[in-house]
What we know:
Layout: H1 15-30, H2 34-41, E1 45-54, E2 60-71, E3 77-84, H3 89-105, E4 111-118, H4 126-139, E5 149-153, H5 159-173, H6 194-212, E6 221-225, H7 229-240, E7 244-250, E8 253-256, H8 263-272, E9 284-286, E10 298-301, E11 320-322, H9 331-339, E12 343-345, H10 347-350, H11 353-367, H12 373-398, H13 402-420
Parallel strand pairs: 3-4, 3-5, 6-7, 6-10, 10-11, 11-12
Antiparallel strand pairs: 1-2, 2-4, 7-8, 8-9
Bound molecules: NADPH dihydro-nicotinamide-adenine-dinucleotide phosphate and 2-oxoglutaric acid (AKG).
Amino acid sequence: MAYIEPAPIKDKENPLESMMSRFDIAAQILGLDDATYNVLKSPTKQVIVSLPITMDDGRKRVFEGYRVIHSNILGPAKGGIRFDPDVNLDEVKALAAWMTWKCAVVDIPYGGAKGGICCNPRAMSAGEIERLMRAYTSAMMGIFGPDRDIPAPDMGTGPREMAWLMDEYSKAQGITVNAVVTGKPLVLGGSLGRVEATGRGVMVSALSAMEKLKLNPAKATCAVQGFGNVGSISAKLLHERGVRIKAVSDITGAYYNDNGIDIEEAIAYKEANNGTLDGYQHAEKIPADDLLTLSVDVLVPAAKEDVITMANVDKIQARLIVEGANGPTSARADAIINEKGIMAVPDILANAGGVTVSYFEWVQNRLGYKWGLDRVNRRSDRIMRDAFDHVYQTAVKYNIPMRIAAYVVAIDKVAKTYQFRGGY
Ligand SMILES: NC(=O)C1=CN([C@@H]2O[C@H](COP(=O)(O)OP(=O)(O)OC[C@H]3O[C@@H](n4cnc5c(N)ncnc54)[C@H](OP(=O)(O)O)[C@@H]3O)[C@@H](O)[C@H]2O)C=CC1
Ligand SMILES: O=C(O)CCC(=O)C(=O)O
């Protein structure tokens, strides 16, 4: 079947519409029947909770929290928890569906879920964040579970928050249940390599794509948007492989150095500077959005959704986009990217290293056994390379872009599993 460009989307770009428009194209290519289509597009469960928290000044504030289980056809649901002021139900629904497709692309036995709380962690104390995380966990007691739904970090959360979640859940169960969450600190049963895993997967995907494009990493240049977990590690690992990182950014702006940024040094600066790049001296500060349209070979968006849109896609100069973030490209921008001949390694493939090592963490917790870093990295690199090859071959087979090929691979797997399980 021929590749069909996404139908134009009205109004504002919306991650859920973007996800559905790619899903629809892949469903048509696969000739998905109506019953399976309707099952796969509808989230299994959507939970919204109100979380009253006592702030440090004694006032009570109520935060809204979400957890969406998109699918548990392949296994227990899996996906991170986001703390961000923009969190809303549609965003969480899109992110949950992307988890389903992502787990299927890398062939790990999980369904997809995502959670989030609409809050601004940058303006909250550690105590306030802890109370919020514990209240959220308590509200989700019937949802979470090592065989049900296993959360992990996402934007605005990390090992510290996962530790509070594990503790709150374990106290309620009366036993230590470390397999209820991944991305934990090492001493609580976290896996070696999980902190670096998403960025490492981005690096492996970027190198695989560069090989296809005959781009020599030692001569290539790159810009990375977002300097949190995914962005900073992607930049560091690409830099270590010889790629010149010309620009990085965080919420305070973008920082450009034509000779390349010393990423180790920028990470050390950020750590010593209250977690931000503000005031970073070894680069010129440029308008944040300019980073995306710089003259570089590789662009790694690793902050948030819908940053490559109709407003800027025309100006993108990179030959390769490797999506560290979830949903950084709007569906409407896809068509222009394809027209321009840019290779885009989609989020559900490029950033799947994180959930892959989360899976290893869960396996280790259940075995009561710890793997060495070497084993973790070797296995996750292999999974990422195999997934890249599978998606690439699918793209060639149907003559479709990598993004749609990734959806085809994922939806085919989930649909077949659904049908074998007796979904009819
Ligand atoms: N953590 C993980 O394992 C995985 C994460 N992802 C995805 O990767 C993306 C980033 O997540 P993660 O690195 O964990 O999150 P972090 O919170 O660690 O980092 C987010 C980064 O993005 C920056 N940022 C936020 N808003 C903007 C903006 N408007 N412009 C530029 N930079 C911005 C933040 O700046 P500041 O530091 O100043 O706040 C920070 O540097 C998300 O889309 C997430 O869903 C995908 C797979 C796994
Ligand atoms: O590690 C995980 O389980 C999920 C990470 C995540 O939220 C993501 O891949 O978007």
